[in-house]
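Readers of this paper often ask what the protein records in our data store actually look like. An entry from our holdings is shown next, in its original layout:
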Amino acid sequence: MSDEKKPVIPVSDEQEELRGKLLAQMRSGSIKAVSFKLRDVLVLTPFSGFTDIFMQLESELSDLYAGRRTFTEMRVIAQDYVEVKYGKKRPITLGLIYDRLQKTGKLSSTARARLQQRECELVEYYSSPRQTGLEMFREAKAHGKKIIIIADTIYPRSTVENVLKSCGYADYDELIMPSELNIADTDSHSAIDAAMLKADVPAGKLLHIGPNVAEDVEYPILKGQKALMLAPVLPLMVRSGRLRGFVEAKHLLDTDDPQYLPLHSLFGLYSMYCFDIPQGKTVHSDFCGSAFMLGFIVLGGLSLCGDFAPENELQSALIAALEECPDCRAGRGAFRDALALHFGDHLGKYGSRDCQLPLIFLEKHSSPADRELLKPYLSAEVYESWAKATSEPEIAPVYYKKVRKGGLYRVADKLFPPGSKVRSLADGALTKLHRSR
């Protein structure tokens, strides 16, 4: 990560109120220990897809492997296999996944070790603190609470410790690694039980904070603990409007192509910064009624495009309006700061495929509240024609993390090899079937 300045993100009154309530819980005299989930609560990465880290290992593979499959395909297939075979019996670890990848890819021990180490290095490099989680952690520590971190991850302890140190969490009291406790991948409760033992306080004096309602709120409360949910940023971003589903509908069959890494990173940064403090969908808006957020994602996307030329007069007018709006310009500035901070000029080598899609969405499918944000900067004629031309977008389900496969997908695994061209077509058909239900 570079040393560029951090982006400044404005927050709404509702977000500031929520932030105050969360920090107040860290100061509560009735709480003696706090357990935090690592993933989504304390640490984020600037990506919006499960395979985004893997895409960056393609060049590493080129001189280690003579087969036709990409690293991303092999890495996903290996994890799928391990989860199906071992998920109910033992913890899933990076070592198990690379055991399988080495076998299927016919990699040498040296090549396997190099790729596995490089994946860990990339995870360490791209991991950043979630600002709200970091503030809660520091507030709890400042008020003498015992801090327990639950790292429910496939990565080894050394990687987790490096991430915690670089993200500002080095002074925790206990680190629980479910993978070291032989907790099965499907067992979501044993780690919380282990945290209670490590806390060594009565259940009612332990506060647990996680990203999942069932695992991190309902279960701890049933055990007599206090619990808070800090909603993960990616689902918040997806549910905030129709934009992400619109983009997904454009790329049902090619989301794992490295040329789309900048587009994925655009949404990763958008979720990481604009949804750090949770906020919900605003009625009749796809950007939470915020000109800043509109500028962040639309002008931010055009910033990645470099030599983008408007395709029509309406696009030209909308870009001019976005440029004229001070809050939209501030959003673009925050995006550029975030891009420099997390990526430097690294994304340039991947191009800018479809990073103009947020502009196209705004042009063709804008919501009434978002049009109002730009109305002062458009002529009456342009605004009226824009409103009349607006239509409902086609959207698709968004899978922003590894998901358990349903019966249809398991059948597809048997009939069509994952990663093959015919499987891509099958996945597209399955997605459309899911959407029609």
About this structure: Residues 15 and 277 are 6 Å apart (CA to CA). Confidence is low (pLDDT under 50) at residues 403-437.
